[in-house]
Amino acid sequence: MDDEQYRQTRNAIDLPPCVYEKALQYGYFVCRYAQNIALGEREALHCQSKSGFANCREYFDLSLEKSGFALGAQQLPTHLTFNKAMQVQIGGVQGLMQFLDVSNPATSSNKAQAVADIADSFIQLKVKTPNFRHLNFSLIVSYIQKYSLRKRGRNKPS
To answer: pTM here?
Structure first.
């Protein structure tokens, strides 16, 4: 299946694509609304909840908007690179979990056990702060800025 066929088939599915798909596929978080769909040799995640999708999309968009400077971009492109997308997804949710004081044992170095459910975290956040725009993103942006898939530098041969 080529890329164009994949996109067309994925867009034809009635469910919206999961906003935090990469973070879920890499095992950093779980979500009760995520549905795994196999297309050809690829896997895709779709959201089964319209309200859950709306919460995730609103939070992700605000995280992206507020973290532009931390990501080193004055104007963010419409399509993020893989590393930047992971930085916003994982760092943003780690910051959210810290804000909500949810125990989250998964970090960039330890993601062996399942962590808190993203959907539950967004429900808690909605109760605490009905409008995500009123959230203090300074704590969350610091987590986005700190998160890195790879550590910089190489191990020099001895």
So the answer is: 0.79
